[in-house]
Design brief:
With 243 residues, this protein is an alpha+beta fold. 39% of the residues lie in helices and 20% in strands. The chain is elongated and about 70 Å long.
Length: 243
Amino acid sequence: MRPPRHDAPTPRPSPGDAGASLVSAAPEVEAEAIAALTPYLVPRRFAAGSTLWLQGSRAGLLVVLERGRVKAVRDHPDGSATLLYIFSPGNVFGFLPFVDGGPYPATAIAIDDVEARVMTRDALVRAIRSDPEVALTLLTALGQRLRGAFQRVGELAQRRAVVRVAAGVVSLLAPHEDGPTTTIEVPDPAYTFAEELGVTPETLSRELNRLAHEGALHRLGPRRWQVLDAPRLRAIAAGHEDE
């Protein structure tokens, strides 16, 4: 098995690029966590390209990032890797193994020269013993991050829903039926068709309207739709939503 590659160019996240951005706590929550941790943190620098910790390791660091960026990369058995998050200045991260005792789920790599303040698990335990408020602020930050992760999962599920609905529409077309005058009729009852696609009736209706808004369909009646762009529908059904 070839080793995972982490030297591929790192994409710069855009505001709408949830896949490459940090699922982060709210800024005020992270600021509170940093304030509570400040007396126990020590400065640390990492050169660009260096590894803060490896996926699967347990002896890590709680990091408050002050300068530069750090990426979290998930390695796969086939040697490929997936970019999970990009941490930016002001983020607090690396404390999950401190909370549940498990290993790190991803490798952390400095994208730029990084300046940070860090603490070990032993130092965190001492801090919590002397000031329980530290634990509360960290749990709040972790809760906010989990909420962000749930939102991300919801966004991914929403995209998969339009793929399933587009595939359902394509299944109603003949193999080479791509003309602009093609019409389809959603089977009656619609909720049965929705169940076959693995979505709710409400989701079926919403995603059909979304496909209409994007110019792939045109509503003719309660269950009848005109197919305006069959190639685009087939692309979406294949998972290529941006084509």
